[in-house]
Amino acid sequence: MTTTPDPLDSFDRQILDIVQRDNQRKAEAIAQQVGLSASAVQRRLKRLRAQGVIRAEVAVLDRQAVGPSVTLIAGIEIDRDNYPALAAFRAWAAREDAIQQVYYVTGTTDLVAVVMARDMAAYDALCERLMTDIPQIRRINTQVVIDAIKVGLQVPV
What we know:
With 157 residues, the chain is an alpha+beta fold. It has a 4-stranded antiparallel β-sheet with strand order 2-3-1-4, covered by helices on one side. It folds into 2 domains: 1-60, Winged helix-like DNA-binding domain superfamily/Winged helix DNA-binding domain (Arc Repressor Mutant, subunit A, Orthogonal Bundle); 70-144, Alpha-Beta Plaits. It has helices at residues 10-19, 27-34, 38-50, 83-94, 120-133, and strands at 70-78, 99-104, 111-117, 137-144. The protein is 36% helix and 19% strand. α2 crosses α3 (38-50).
């Protein structure tokens, strides 16, 4: 159950910095690094999870090890002033595992999405479904990622 998070103190911030880089690190090692007892670290982690500050703990896979895929950056344009289409896209994207990240942005596009697909045919099928399901999508401008120089999900704490 998510509750309103307590303000984060410096110990919480240090712990969060450590666990978002390696959530398998033992409480004893974290405690030694931040200057608390292992039980204090465990209590803090439990509270941070319960309050939703730590939203998920996942395995980050080696992209090469799991087989071929392509990463794409899609700039998505929606017909002007069409907020219902934006809400529909939010719900649609939440159901699509291929869509890794989406940002509502300023500029020439309305949304920027990071997409991982098995191949270009799978990406084309995704775009076709999107434009069929949400006809207010005016255009999708796609860039194919040649090399992922840095991929990270760490949040500055």
